[in-house]
Sequence to fold (329 residues):
Amino acid sequence: MRIGSFDTDERVLVIAEIGNNHEGDAGVARELVERAADAGADAVKFQTFRTEAFVSPSDADRYARMQRFELAAAQFAELADVAHARGLLFLSTALDLDSVDALAPIVDAYKIASGDITFFPLLSRVAAVGKPVVLSTGTSEPAEIVRAVDALPGIDVAVLHCVSSYPASDEEINLRAIGVLAKLLPGRAIGYSDHTVGLDAAPLAVACGARIVEKHFTLDRKFSDFRDHALSADPEAMHEVVRRIRAAETLLGNPAKEVQPSEVDAHVALRRSIAAARGLDAGHVLVEHDLVWTRPADALQPGQESLVLGRALRRAVVAGEHLHSDDVV
Fold:
């Protein structure tokens, strides 16, 4: 999958999920972008919404909180500029139809939240823009995931395994679902959105095939009592997440079994040659018990015994001496 100039076939995309951890403070949001870049992330992601189109007023506490957390379209445009200036991709989750339109000029890709996988008016509006989409799949079953992808025709869609618990427990995170999604959606980039506390799941997700990893990000896990901070990585932890993911990429290598450059000399040193099991005179006709197989592989190889068995030695050999085809007649 390509998002801007980034190709997930070449490198795992690490997204610092800022979400609403700015809590409505544009200055904090800007600092989060800067610190994400310092930590080595490839992208930042926010949530963009108008509270009245996203939360029912009957949910009074949540409605009031989300109103406090709202940022204006102009503020997101400034944050996108900061991200791009730092070499980061800029993504945001559009949580209402008008926010899709507001984000269209500034995002490199849209994020679709797990809860909106069946919000088909939103999917249709996003599809009309034509930009790449990253789709989370918490609380979803395979048929729902396929329907959501089908609702984005012609769009490059990455699908993230996700468990919509805050935080998600190790017992439920089920990273093997990444492979299930890869089989369900062949040719699609598959990733992982991490809601666990700690750093272990992200690099393990890469080992399971994730090409995109999203990790919640905060300046301080004790920033406030807003739940997302506690399951987020702070700048130091995010730097370590990135380091572990890059290490996992290096260790995984490519899907081919090849002789590595460092193994070329070992190929000879570690393999064996056919040798004389004891001292033998010229003219001796070789039989199986005359042979032994010893390192290095600088003469006839195991499997070439037929070239010497039943044939007479051209010269005398000492015990352990490696045999060549011209040693027999």
